[in-house]
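User: Show me a protein chain along with its predicted structure.
Assistant: Here is one chain, sequence first, then C-alpha cells.
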Amino acid sequence: MPALYGLIGFPLTHSFSPAYFKKKFAEQNIDAVYEAFPLTGINEFPALLNTLPALRGLNVTLPYKEAVIPLLDDLDSSAREIGAVNCIAIRNGNTKGYNTDATGFEHSLNPLLEPQHTQALILGTGGSSKAVAYALLMLGIPYTLVSRSYKPGCIAYDDLTIEIIADHKLIINTTPLGLYPAIDAAPPIPYEGIGTQHLLYDLIYNPEETKFLTIGKALGASIKNGFEMLQLQAEAAWDIWTGAAAPE
C-alpha cells in the first residue's frame, strides 16, 4: 500500500499542496498518495487519524494551525515557540507538529533584504503571522504586528499613519485579503507612505499579484508573492516526513 499524505483545513478548494505533491510524486516516481481532507471542525482530526492508518504526514492550513496543537502528541521546539503548526509527522501512531512556514518564509525573504529593511510591519495576527514573526526574529529584524482590533502587543489598522508606513521599509501581508476570488480586496493601510525603498511581501500566491502588491509596485516598491515560500515549506515538510531533515 502506498504511503498516504494529505492536507487538513477548511475550505480547501484552492489549496497549493495537493497539486504540488501529486506532481512531485508523479515526476519523481514516488509510491505515495496525497489527498485533501477538509475538516469542518478540528474535533474531526482524531477520527481522521483512526480511520486512515496509512497516513504518514499532514500539512495544516487555515483555520487549524493553532487549534490542532492540543491534539498532537509532541511538538518540534520551533513550532512550540512559534505557537502554530503547518506540518505533522505521523510515526507509529504518534503525531508531532512542525512549522515549515517559518523556514520557507525566511529562505525566500533573505535574498531580497537590503540595508534599509531594518523594521517590518506584519499585517495580520493569525497562525501564518506567527511563523513570519519567528523568521524575522531569526533574521534579526524587529517587527510590529497590525491587527483589525486592539490586542496586546499589536497596533490597529486605524492607528497606522503615513509616517509609520514610511519608517517600516518591509511590509508583509499574512491576511487572506486579496486571495482569489476576492481579488479586489487589500489591507487597509496608508499606501501613500510606500516608496522605492520598500519591500512588500504577500503570503498569497493566487492571484500571482494581489492588489496589495500591485499598489506597492506602482509606488516603486519591490514586491514578492508567496509562491516560493510555499514551495520551500512543502519541500521542508517532505524532508520531515521522510526523515531527511536533521533532527532537533
